[in-house]
Amino acid sequence: MNLLQFSYEQEFTLESGETLARFNLVYGTSGTLNETKDNVIWVCHALTGNASADDWWSGMIGEGKFYNPDEHFIICANIIGSHYGSTGPFSWNNKTDDRYYHDFPFVTIRDMVNAMELLRIHLGITKIHTCIGGSLGGQQAMEWAILQPTLIDNLILIATNAYHSAWGIAFNESQRMAIETDPTWKEKRPDAGIQGMKTARSIALLSYRHYETYTQKQTSPDKNKQDDFPASSYQRYQGEKLAKRFNAFSYWVLSKAMDSHNVGRGRGGVEAALRVIRSKTLVIGISTDILFPVSEQKYLAQTIPNAQYTEIESIYGHDGFLVEFEILSQILKQFYISSDIPKDIPVEKE
């Protein structure tokens, strides 16, 4: 995807009442906007994602993939608070003449969407054919469909919820507690808290995956082994991997934003907010998701007017939406051509 930057040079008021003097959003585009401007696919990324959706969702976006830039204008904006170029904790704070670090203001999912709405206006996009997102990305897509009920034709919500659960908040708080144990966390430097974030990522993986994922992928073939198990090295590897591409400040800010998610806040409650949605909506759950259990997606489908629900059988838990490209493509194909989604879609094997 081609990476570009949108700069908003006016004061931006956050839901908390705090303000940013200005902000930048890095966004990626692929394909060409057609003459009628009705081929926009807007992808909302999850917690540690970025604007290069064709990288982290390569099974869904690209030449020959379901969302093909030869047919669609695909866009993904890196959210406020993230690590990948948009305004966040490493941005300059004119009030202190230093980077924000711990002083970056509290942001919500709604703040992220309001910033993307300004980007949309800047780009002259008046209609979004499809807005799609999983996890925190789904939270953004849902907020946008409520904020602008006539903007999005097709809304696809994967492994997400209408408000973040006490269970999900507890996982996030445990991760922040891990960051706090890092003695460097209180320091104002880019790598502060990075060791703690490695542990936080290990905690997160336990909520992203499933018992069967670890059983099938991380069980040692050596039945006599007493130490140095594959599951142990895998957890450490995942922590190290994230530490090479992310920072603890953004991790903290975005996990707090996820905790704040509640579409009913200030709108008369969750049900009243969801009933505002006018998009043709597909809600997808993942059978083994313990972080966003399917009961949350079923609630969305039952409450959003005329929404459809389907479920992916997967051993990969919450991360199934980043892995199960084949079945997801088949589900989406059926969604676009039919008003009904089969409960069981056979996967064609090569």
TrEMBL record:
Active site per the UniProt annotation: 135 (nucleophile), 289, 318
InterPro entries referenced in this protein's UniProt entry, alphabetically: AB_hydrolase_1 (IPR000073), AB_hydrolase_fold (IPR029058), HAT_MetX-like (IPR008220)
Recorded GO MF terms: homoserine O-acetyltransferase activity
Pathway the protein acts in: Amino-acid biosynthesis; L-methionine biosynthesis via de novo pathway; O-acetyl-L-homoserine from L-homoserine: step 1/1
Name of the protein described by the UniProt record: Homoserine O-acetyltransferase
Alphabetical list of Pfam families matching this protein: Abhydrolase_1 (PF00561)
Cellular localisation: Cytoplasm
Binding locations of substrate: 201, 319
UniProt GO BP: homoserine metabolic process; methionine biosynthetic process
GO cellular component terms listed in the entry, alphabetical order: cytoplasm
Description of how the protein assembles with itself and partners: Homodimer.
Chain ranges of the AB hydrolase-1 domain: 40-324
Domain of life where this protein originates: Bacteria
Its EC number(s): 2.3.1.31
Xref: Gene3D superfamilies: alpha/beta hydrolase
Function: Transfers an acetyl group from acetyl-CoA to L-homoserine, forming acetyl-L-homoserine.
Annotated HAMAP family: MetX_acyltransf (MF_00296)
Family, similarity comment: Belongs to the AB hydrolase superfamily. MetX family.
Catalytically driven reaction(s): L-homoserine + acetyl-CoA = O-acetyl-L-homoserine + CoA
Name of the gene: metX
Primary location group: cytoplasm
Keyword line: Acyltransferase, Amino-acid biosynthesis, Cytoplasm, Methionine biosynthesis, Transferase
Classification via NCBIfam families: homoserO_Ac_trn (TIGR01392)
